Structures are given as C-alpha cells and as structure tokens.
Amino acid sequence: MNLVFDGRDAEPLAVTAPVAAEPVQASVSWNLDAGDGGVYGLFHMDSLEGFSTGSVGAAVSGKEFQAQVGTMLAAGGDTYSLLYTRDGSMYDGFTHQAATSELAEIGARVGASAPGKVGSVHPMWWNEFMGVGGAGNHVALPYTSKQYVTTPPGYRWSFGVGQAPADVPFDGEYEVLYDRDQGRSYEAGKSYGVTLNVGVFAPDIRAGDLGRIEDFAVLCQPVFSDTSGRPGHTGPAVVKAKLTVDGKTFQEQDSPCLQVSGLPAKESAYTLSVDATRKAEVARVSTRVSAEWTFTSASPGNTVALPPLSTLGFAPELTPASTAEAGTTLRVPLVVEGNAARKGVASLTVEASYDGGTTWRKAPVTTENGERAITLDHPASAASVSLRGGLKDTEGNGYEVTVTDAYLLTPHAS
What does the domain layout of the chain look like in residue ranges? Predict the structure, then answer.
C-alpha cells in the first residue's frame, strides 16, 4: 500500500483562551493502542502559530488512535492549559476559542520560604499512554494564580513548581523543583485548589521509586517531597545515603536514589539511611532532613516486589512562606504511607523541638475518624518548629525521620 503525504492538504491549528493571553508553549501529539502498552509521538513548540496538520488514510475505529492538540497561554499570572483530543485520526487542522464553561479553575497557592525567589507552575496532562507538560512564565514568589484546564474524558492533570533566585539569569535549572504528582481529573465549571512549595517537606513513599527483582533493587526516596506526594529536589543540597545489609555497609553515595545489585537471596536485615542539608538562602525550612528505614527483604525471584518501606509526613496548614504564628496552638495532621498504611501501624511517636533540635518534647498522637494528628503549643519566643517521628508496622519494619526547621514561626498578631 502506498501513502501519499502532501503538506498542501494540511490545515492550520489555532487555539485561543477566553481572554487575551500570550502563548507560552504548545504541543501536537498522538497515541496508538498497539496492545503492548501503546506507542506515541509528540511535537513540542513555542506556539501553534505556523503549524498545520492533516490526516492520511482511513480513520481507526474507536479510541485505538487518538490525537491531541494542546497549548499553554498566559494572562498575567494566570495560565490556560487547553487540551483537545480527536479519536480515530489526526486533526485536519483545528481552530477553536475556548469558552469559560469548558474549563475547570484551579486556584494555585505557590510558596517560597526564602526571600528573593521567582518560580513557575508546571501543568501536565496524562492519559493511559503518555503525559505532556511544561512550565509557565516566571513570577515573583510567593504568589497566587488561577490555573485553567480543559477536561477531556480519560485525562487527568497534575501540577508541579520550580523555584529560582530572582537576581540571577535563569539557566534552565531550578534550585528547588517539585515534580508533578499522579494527578486527578477535573470537571468543567468547577473550582479547585492546589498548594505548591509549602512545607512540611520530608520523604514520602508516594514520591519515590521503589522495587526489587531477584538481586537488584531500586530504593529512591526524594528527601524534600511535599505532603501531597510530589517528589521534591533541591539542586544545591548536600545528600548522603547508605545501605547496610546484615550490619555491613553495602553501598554509599551522594544521592537519595540508590540502585543496587548483588543483594543476597536469603532474607536479610536492611538499614537505609538518608541525610540531606540545604542552605537557608535556598529554603529556610527543612534545612536538614534525616531518615532511616529498617526492614527485612529476600529475593522475590523474577517478579517485582515492593520492599516494606513506610514514611511519616507532617501536614499542618501553613502560610505560603511555610510559617505559623508563635504563641498559638496548631493541629498537625500526620500522613502514614507505604507498608505501614497497607499492613497496619504497630507504634507511632512524634516529638517537637523549638530550639532547632537541641531539646525535644513529646507530642501525643491522637486519632479521630481514622485520621492521626498532633497538637502543638508554640512558645511565644520560638522562631521555628522541628519535628521528628518514628513508626513500626505490624511486620516489624521501622522508620524514623527528623526534620530540622520543619516550619517557621512569626510573632503572634495582637
């Protein structure tokens, strides 16, 4: 069979927002369900201007083939991420002005714990085969914005954020980066909210990459993740990670993401420790995070198994600068993830420090309607709160974490 492609048959693409907005970037993509996980392709560009598309051959039945046209447009600090899909064939051009009624509105609260920062929100869409995202324009942090997205069936959106110093030309590398989470679907005409780059930052099992097959394991736990499960990365951070097996050092490195091979097949006792520090000029909270996992593991054979790791997160309501008021009481919800969430928690303790970790006070854990929390009475003279906690799951695996300067305290408003 011969196929003839003639560019003169292609038609232009033009997608605009309900209001005047400037293009930030755009994409044209497609995916094919080939029965083996699918294949896909992508064109990425600054805008749709000058880009044309056309279809060749008969349309494919159902959703075996799907094309996508997307564009990101900025109106001040607000962003319109507009995605449209077509089943069966590539677009023969597409011209459309989005209506407000098509869009979901996500109020984005974007923080920074250190002064003099700029940043951008990073929207991304996903379907079962692929994901496409980008970065919005840089604005001074902290700030609030509205993120508008279309809501095609079978698609979900997620949001990340990047932080950079305001006084240095941006070189493409963020000093603080929060990857997108797993995302969710939205409904047109409804309003939602998302908080980005606001503490408490600590390891979160949902943000990591974890698995073992035969004698090989991936043990990757980003240290500065947020309580929604977004992996957090700080470029200038100093990180030390170590894995011991039956009390002997097996691997050490300057990264929280270990890939190890040659592990013993028999059940053995493991300790994974990670320690990370970052300068206050980058972030004034979670200036040091130390975590340690103790667990047992044996070869699962030629199948991928999850090592029994857990994490404990702290999720108070904080300002965009990751602060709360001194001299007040604050409830801090606790987030248990991983093996302890699946198998059950045997023990859980939390302590707080108001002097950077020199002295510690027990913080009793309460449970109400299945939700664990602690309540802290902030001293009027304290400048920060550090937190540490430990848990064991019902299988005897343990986790301990210490977050120095988990959040800051500001004088109580009189």
Answer: 7-196, 205-410
